[in-house]
Amino acid sequence: MRFETKREREQRRKRQKRSAILGMVFAMLVVVGLGVLLWNGKKNIEAKNVEYEKQIKELQEQGKILYTELTDEARAEIKEAMVAATEPKVEEMCGKEILETFRN
Predict the structure, then answer these.
(1) What dihedral do alpha carbons 53, 59, 65, 66 form, nearest 10°?
(2) How many CB atoms lie within 10 A of CB 91?
(3) Contact of 59 with 65, CB cutoff 8 Å
């Protein structure tokens, strides 16, 4: 075991303290940097969402798309309309007996 003088001990503690402070500063810079990156990413996503919403509205006005999100009621209405549109053709092709089995 090596003994150290008072001056060596003070220098060692000073280096340890400096190293600890630099480590904390580095950690804080990393956290702030990640925060800035996440904030910029969020802003970019919000800007793209605004752009996409404009495109959806334009397409809706042109009649190229009818809706973007469906509620359960809208899904049920669409399903009923599709069934009503296809039932006569199925009945014509297969007959009423087969159609009744699929309804149940």
Answers:
(1) 80
(2) 14
(3) yes
Cα→Cα distances 59→46, 48, 49, 50, 63, Å: 20, 16, 15, 14, 6
* Structure tokens given for 73: 């009621």
Global pTM reads 0.45
Residue 66: per-residue pLDDT: 64
pLDDT in tens, 22-55: 999 999 999 999 999 998 888 888 888 888 888 8
